[in-house]
Amino acid sequence: MNRPNIWSEQKEILFEDNHLLILNKPAGVLVQGDNTGDEPLSVKAAEYLRFKYKKPGAAFVGVAHRLDRPVSGVVALAKTSKALSRLNEMFRDNKVHKTYWALVGKCPEPTSGHLTHWLVKDPIRNVTKAYSERHGQGLKADLDYQVLGQAGNRFLIQVNPITGRPHQIRVQLATGLGTPIVGDVKYGFLNPLPDVSIALHARQLEFEHPVTREAMCFRAPVPEMAHWEAAQTFYTV
């Protein structure tokens, strides 16, 4: 059996033990399967584990959280049902600290702050609308942000979402700050990126190991793409 291409250099693997597989997801890859039928990260990970450990049957891979398809960065997968159950609980109870990097076309004002919106998702169009006041069945969404600095002709924003809503960062930056993410034409950026990704990257995950209870922190380098190149100078931040 050939090793799946995504694992050819193992650059995507940030950490692995008996219970966790932490990956740096490339933009354009689904985390979990959908109606497109495209092979998701969870299946690629199961193939990798089956190949690595020479398993005769399918390997267990549990998905506790997701990143949008055009988004890159840290994804935590569970290799055991115990780890998955506890990870699900930690994500549900907001006990996982998430840090994202986003490139935008102009510097937002103010340069740091807190955003609160009520989000309503249109599942048919796969787009989320943000309201500044309580709205119908809208789900409350909170995030903190700060501008790290100028990265080439863009501005790099660090975002710490407090809740985990569909398209939350994308729609809150576009609606609350008037700064859609580079490449995100769905939420107002004028032009797509050549690879049809968006310049949103799940930079870091911090949580307590679901089994050993050890404090864990995982950072993912940004993609090796031209639009992210200038952001690498902020790696020490």
How is this structure best described in words?
Keywords: Isomerase. This is RluA family pseudouridine synthase. Belongs to the pseudouridine synthase RluA family. Pfam families: PseudoU_synth_2 (PF00849). Helix content is about 15%, strand content about 35%. The chain contains three helices and eleven strands, in the order ββαββαβββββαββ. Strands 1, 2, 3, 4, 5, 6, 7, 8, 9, 10 and 11 form an eleven-stranded mixed sheet that branches. Strand 6 (about 110-120) and strand 7 (about 125-130) form a beta hairpin.
Helix content: 10-25%
Instruction: Compute the separation of the termini in Å.
Output: 42 Å
How many DSSP helices?
Answer: 3
The profile of the biggest β sheet is:
11 strands, mixed
The strand count comes to: 11
Low-confidence runs of at least 5 consecutive residues? none
The dominant shape is: globular
Order of helices and strands: EEHEEHEEEEEHEE
Provide mean pLDDT, rounded. 92
Task: Specify the structural class.
Answer: alpha+beta
Beta-strand residue percentage: 25-35%
Radius of gyration, CA atoms, in whole angstroms = 18 Å
Sequence-ordered SSE layout with sheet pairings:
Layout: E1 13-16, E2 20-25, H1 41-52, E3 62-63, E4 72-78, H2 81-92, E5 97-104, E6 112-122, E7 127-131, E8 139-151, E9 154-161, H3 168-176, E10 200-208, E11 215-219
Parallel strand pairs: 4-10
Antiparallel strand pairs: 1-2, 2-4, 3-4, 5-9, 5-10, 6-7, 6-8, 8-9, 10-11
